[in-house]
């Protein structure tokens, strides 16, 4: 997570300097007809966008380490999402003051922002929905975001562990507080698939025939243990 926040933060800062030197990259302005571009204070807009994106980038980096240092891990791990959503919303709304064209696009802008906001909330809500384990003959299905199917024949070993290897970075997944779903790079294990619903052990670790690791746990440790026992029984048949 440290690396991801740093990369995203530096990327935002870089984009900030880029839009100042190349205003044509600013969405909305780059598609305007020439007669309407004349009514846009592009010097002020590009400066505003540069400063705003730099602030967003620095907030992601500093906010992550600050909240992690004071112990608010959930907020720290959500800095990219929170800062980007709030920051971009503020940028889009305030950028309107640099456009002197008499249009009705403000309502459209707010409508689009509303849709984006609802989409983000929807993704977060979907990510919080607990995965369910479904057993179908020799196949096990885990539902929900980043759910998957796996056949018993693909599993080389299954075990319970009270420790989760250190997560180095997210490669393709959902991360919000203690919830981790998708693919992450772990210390010792490398790239692994996670369906983590809490920070409570035990963790169910499945090792596939090709060496890939799948780590799962639920909010209720009893459910994690029951899932382990069921899969172990299916393997030992």
UniProtKB/TrEMBL annotation:
Entry-linked InterPro entries:
UCP037672
What Pfam families does the annotation carry?
DUF3784
Q: Which UniProt keywords apply?
A: Membrane, Transmembrane, Transmembrane helix
Keyword Protein biosynthesis found: no
Per the UniProt record, which residue ranges are transmembrane?
Answer: 6-27, 48-67, 73-96, 108-129
Signal peptide bounds:
none
Keyword Magnesium among UniProt keywords: no
Please state what the protein is called: DUF3784 domain-containing protein
Which species is the source of this protein? Marnyiella aurantia
């Amino acid at each position: 997570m440290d690396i991801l926040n740093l990369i995203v933060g530096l990327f935002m800062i870089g984009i900030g300097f880029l839009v100042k030197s190349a205003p044509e990259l600013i969405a909305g302005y780059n598609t305007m007809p020439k007669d309407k571009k004349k009514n846009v204070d592009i010097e002020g807009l590009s400066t505003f966008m540069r400063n705003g994106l730099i602030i967003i980038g620095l907030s992601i980096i500093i906010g992550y380490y600050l909240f992690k240092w004071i112990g608010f891990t959930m907020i720290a791990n959500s800095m990219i999402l929170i800062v980007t959503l709030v920051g971009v919303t503020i940028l889009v709304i305030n950028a309107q003051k640099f456009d002197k064209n008499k249009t009705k696009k403000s309502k459209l802008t707010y409508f689009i922002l509303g849709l984006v906001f609802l989409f983000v909330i929807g993704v977060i809500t979907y990510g919080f929905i607990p995965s369910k384990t479904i057993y179908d003959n020799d196949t096990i299905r885990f539902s929900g975001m980043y759910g998957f199917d796996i056949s018993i024949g693909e599993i080389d070993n299954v075990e319970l562990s009270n420790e989760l290897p250190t997560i180095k970075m997210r490669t393709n997944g959902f991360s919000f507080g203690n919830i981790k779903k998708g693919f992450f790079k772990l210390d010792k294990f490398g790239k692994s698939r996670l369906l983590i619903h809490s920070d409570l052990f035990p963790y169910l670790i499945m090792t596939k025939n090709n060496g890939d690791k799948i780590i799962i746990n639920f909010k209720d440790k009893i459910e994690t243990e029951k899932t382990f026992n069921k899969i172990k029984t299916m393997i030992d048949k």
